């Protein structure tokens, strides 16, 4: 069913802006709600507002597919899905009000359930893109098997708008789980990783997990989702302290949006460390981390200047580290910031990235310096 048909002049206006920028090689900075301006490298160029390009163009609940324009507010999409008992299973974070669907895809960030249900790109069926030549391109479709050759639409997830302006996306949605429960276990970081690895090999309805210190004691919280019988059986098998459902829902939401008190710091850099789930406790100085994704994602609060040590520790176990949010005094583009957000690419990957960038945006119009400072 078609829910809205926004005026085409919004898209035409964006095409004209891009065509003019390409003619003069002038940078444009794609901006929806601006809720992730802190993420990535420098913000350069004149703002290109995507919010007029809004509206849900089609939604087929029985097919588990929704097609939505990039400037649509994320909360509006999730509200619509909820009326049909459906959701974006990867739980995209909303750091502030006003985030858009285009920004969600461009940032490629996922919430607590990512390790169990997949990332943003795994739910992206198709996309429409305005490239740096002011050409409107469409990739993928509205079914999982509609992929021939390179799956370009999924390359857009996490590219931070450097390949072009996402104008519309088709997303796979899923039904909300019939049952949910959160169990708490007091344990050390090492024991939490051991338990998660053991449980991960069993037929349990694991959906999300988080370990952190509370009041000096380590606490592992485990979220179960699935059929009522499966959740109840898992609770009986695992033990732990079952938490109040409403309070737990608020807690997981605050974790998703980094509103949890653990993230309340302006004096430290926030590092996101991605490692294999089986990686042991990392030798990183400072306060204990907050661990998600069954051990695969670990957040560290560190004083500015610890970046090299964190990246060395992550690399030693086959992972990598991202400066997710710089200390308030040295935010994105600030003079006091000397550490790059993302790790340098290998020569091979650098060539591939540059080739993709040149193919989609030969004049360097979009989000110049946002993903990698050199381009």
SS element count, helices? 10
Mean pLDDT: 92
At the first level of CATH, the class of the largest domain is Alpha Beta
Largest sheet: number of strands, sense, barrel closure: 8 strands, antiparallel
CATH architecture classification name of the largest domain:
2-Layer Sandwich
Instruction: Look at the helices and sheets and give the structural class.
Output: alpha+beta
In terms of DSSP E residues, the strand content is 15-25%
Helix content: 25-40%
N-to-C CA distance: 41 Å
What does this structure look like?
The protein is α+β, with helices and mostly antiparallel strands. It has three domains: 9-175, Uridine Diphospho-n-acetylenolpyruvylglucosamine Reductase, domain 3 (2-Layer Sandwich); 179-261, 2-Layer Sandwich (Alpha-Beta Plaits), CATH 3.30.70; 265-330. It has ten helices and 17 strands. The strands form four sheets. It has an eight-stranded antiparallel beta sheet with strand order 13-10-12-11-15-16-14-17. Strands 3-4-8-6-7 form a five-stranded antiparallel beta sheet. A two-stranded parallel ribbon has the order 1-2. A hairpin with a 4-residue loop joins strand 3 and strand 4. The longest helix is centred in the first third of the chain and has 16 residues, at 9-24.
What attributes characterize this protein structure?
single chain, 10 helices, 25% strand, alpha+beta, five-stranded antiparallel β-sheet, eight-stranded antiparallel β-sheet, Uridine Diphospho-n-acetylenolpyruvylglucosamine Reductase, domain 3, globular, 27% helix, 375 residues
